[in-house]
Amino acid sequence: MLENELRIVIEIRNKLAHGQWIYPLNSEGNKVEAEKFKLISKENLLSLQLKFSLIGHLADVINDLVVSPKAFLRDFEDHFKKLFQAQANLQRKDYAKYEATLVQSRRSARAKAKRNSP
To answer: Which of the listed residues 27, 43, 59 is the one where a domain comes to its end?
Structure first.
């Protein structure tokens, strides 16, 4: 998980934190990293939310391991299921469907507000 999903999340986060929003540069700062450029351009709200969830679940596992071995043993299966679900969601969720759901939700909220306004 660290190598496959999280390494790139961390690397991209570092590029963005250093102001490289459009063109991620190499460590010397003299060349655009083409692969990371492609990855940044593929990001959207849904993928960021799912990656945030993945990191949160992993943090929960690590916290239990460090703070309370009893809690780690007790809750490991639940944490592991959540981690795998987050990974599966990252692979399977369709942004177009997510976008349509957001748009429909906003339209419904506006229609409801219109009906309830004086």
So the answer is: 43
The pTM of the full predicted model, rounded to 2 decimals, is 0.70
The closest of 21, 3, 47 to 12, measured between CA atoms, is 21
Beta-carbon-side half-sphere exposure of residue 37 (alpha carbons within 13 Å): 9
Phi, psi angles (nearest 5°) of residue 32: -75, 135
Domain count for the chain, please give it. Answer: 2
Helix ranges (DSSP H) in the chain? 7-17, 34-42, 45-67, 69-92, 95-116
Task: Give yes or no: residues 3 and 28 share one domain.
Answer: yes
pLDDT attached to residue 81: 93
- C-alpha distances in angstroms, 60 versus 6, 17, 49, 50, 66? 15, 24, 17, 15, 10
